[in-house]
């Protein structure tokens, strides 16, 4: 075998090894892409489960808060002064007016919290539309009449929007 034949044989062998390396690299990359896609899908599922858990926890916290407030209200000797149908303009005694103001500030804080959670996607649409809108229609005119101001601009805009709605 001549030196030229040997060189050509080594060149062919080099090309063959190079082609094998390219095929092996492509196979390796395909496996990595598949593993990456599976990991991404698993992360997405995990994030969705975490989001569902956060929603459930937020709902439970709201239920606990409302239950606590209702139990306190039920047991309060001032329950007649804290009726949500009361007209703030008719409450003239300073102590009763302060009590009513604190009561409606509580309503406003609960409503603000609900709106904040809704803005961040931690509240389902049905609860927001039914409970939050109802709470705002009933309580916002009263908390405003008592001088309680909304703490966030986006919340204030939403309260304004809901109060402008014509609801039967």
Describe the protein's architecture and organization.
- There is one protein chain.
- The protein has 168 residues and is an all-alpha fold.
- Helices cover 79% and strands 0% of the residues.
- The radius of gyration is 33 Å and the shape is rod-shaped.
- The model has no long low-confidence stretch (mean pLDDT 80).
Layout of strands and helices, then pairs:
Elements: H1 3-75, H2 94-119, H3 125-145, H4 153-164
Straight-line N-to-C gap: 102 Å
Task: Report the radius of gyration as a whole number of Å.
Answer: 33 Å
Order of helices and strands: HHHH
The DSSP helix count reads 4
Query: What is the helical fraction, as a range of percent?
Result: over 70%
| Beta-strand content bin | under 5%
Averaged pLDDT, please?
80
- In total, the number of strands is 0
Outline the biggest β-sheet: none
Shape: rod-shaped
Low-confidence stretches: none
